From TrEMBL:
<dbReference type="InterPro" id="IPR001387">
    <property type="entry name" value="Cro/C1-type_HTH"/>
</dbReference>
<protein>
    <recommendedName>
        <fullName>HTH cro/C1-type domain-containing protein</fullName>
    </recommendedName>
</protein>
<dbReference type="GO" id="GO:0003677">
    <property type="term" value="F:DNA binding"/>
</dbReference>
<dbReference type="InterPro" id="IPR010982">
    <property type="entry name" value="Lambda_DNA-bd_dom_sf"/>
</dbReference>
<feature type="domain" description="HTH cro/C1-type">
    <location>
        <begin position="1"/>
        <end position="31"/>
    </location>
</feature>
Length: 83
């Protein structure tokens, strides 16, 4: 079915495009345009803005510690999910 979209035989419906984007774990924008939109403060939740503000107030070594925790978390998540 995807080959018919690639070949231009069929047009992709919005619903199908959303499902494909979900299966690929990318946004619909990325699927359609090939690149992500830059994230702006308007795209963030209040909690995300607060966390970024707190992160920016950390010292260099404190930021490194937070970065390390996130890196370890992501590595373990990949190991669990096989991704």
């Amino acid at each position: 079915m995807i080959s018919s979209y690639i070949k231009g035989v069929h047009a992709v419906s919005l619903e199908a495009a959303q499902k494909i984007a979900g299966a690929l774990d990318v946004s619909l924008w990325v699927l359609l345009n090939g690149e992500a939109l830059p994230v702006t403060a308007l795209d963030m939740t209040e909690k995300e803005r607060r966390l970024i503000g707190e992160y920016r107030r950390l010292t260099g070594s404190e930021r490194e510690a937070v970065d390390h925790v996130i890196q370890v978390y992501n590595e373990r998540k990949k190991e669990r999910t096989g991704g």
